[in-house]
């Protein structure tokens, strides 16, 4: 029994996991080719690029697209639409970028913290994408009311540059740096528990808010007498009883 437990423990160790990754990614290594193709060249370019520089360039591309769309449509929530999605892609990128073209004669250096962070960010992204989508965020006509409000309050010239440097550029580069990781340590256990707790809090808060808003909308449509939270216009039950913005609190706990 003791031998079986010891063997199982060894199989579940990071060293065994690293050996598994090494053998798996070795099978995906691109063979040498004299017949260059666009796809092959793109993969070679990706594999030979510095992971951070590549991600920052991708962020610049996203920034330009968001700016172009905002100028073409007059709406400024294009970064909001990709906010739950690109961090997942960046996290995967940082996790797997070193695996491509890893020298066959050298042991693979795996980064457990990157894989753990990627899993947590994936869960966050799935929740955020679903919640944003059910609120109509992916509609082409959607715009966050805060951008509309700021656009009305700011002089046109200041808003123009604010849109470029903050809404489009800064936010996209922020998403790159939020997904960078460092070596795993004991603090990550606490951080993982905290991230999961923040994710649960955020999800519960958003769902309670969604149910409340749908009930309020139905009550208004039916011309019912509004009392309590319905009359106040904001929720004071559930997790909202203890915090004015539990969804934002969960988001902060998740990332910081």
From TrEMBL:
InterPro entries in the record, alphabetically? UstE-like
- Looking at the UniProt entry, the stretches that span the membrane are 52-70, 82-102, 108-126, 156-180, 186-205
- What are the entry keywords? Membrane, Transmembrane, Transmembrane helix
Q: Where is the signal peptide?
A: none
One term under GO cellular component: membrane
Q: Tell me what this protein is called.
A: Steroid 5-alpha reductase C-terminal domain-containing protein
Q: Which organism is it from?
A: Podila minutissima
């Amino acid at each position: 029994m003791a031998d079986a437990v010891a063997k199982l423990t060894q199989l579940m160790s990071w060293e065994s996991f690293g050996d598994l990754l090494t053998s798996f990614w070795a099978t995906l290594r691109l063979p040498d080719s004299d017949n260059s193709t666009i796809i092959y060249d793109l993969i070679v370019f990706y594999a030979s690029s510095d992971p951070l520089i590549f991600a920052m360039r991708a962020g610049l591309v996203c920034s330009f697209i968001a700016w172009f769309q905002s100028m073409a449509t007059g709406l400024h929530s294009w970064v909001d639409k990709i906010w739950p999605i690109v961090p997942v892609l960046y996290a995967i990128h940082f996790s797997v970028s070193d695996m491509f073209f890893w020298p066959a004669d050298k042991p693979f250096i795996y980064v457990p913290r990157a894989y753990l962070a990627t899993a947590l960010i994936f869960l966050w992204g799935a929740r955020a994408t679903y919640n944003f989508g059910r609120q109509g965020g992916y509609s082409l006509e959607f715009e966050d009311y805060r951008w509309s409000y700021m656009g009305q309050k700011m002089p046109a010239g200041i808003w123009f540059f604010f849109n470029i440097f903050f809404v489009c550029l800064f936010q996209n580069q922020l998403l790159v740096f939020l997904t960078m990781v460092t070596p795993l340590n004991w603090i990550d256990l606490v951080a993982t528990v905290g991230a999961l707790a923040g994710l649960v809090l955020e999800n519960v808060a958003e769902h309670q808010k969604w149910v409340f808003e749908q009930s309020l909308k139905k009550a208004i449509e039916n011309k019912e007498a509004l009392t309590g939270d319905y009359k106040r216009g904001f929720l004071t039950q559930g997790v909202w009883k203890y915090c004015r913005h539990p969804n934002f609190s969960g988001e902060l706990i998740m990332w910081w």
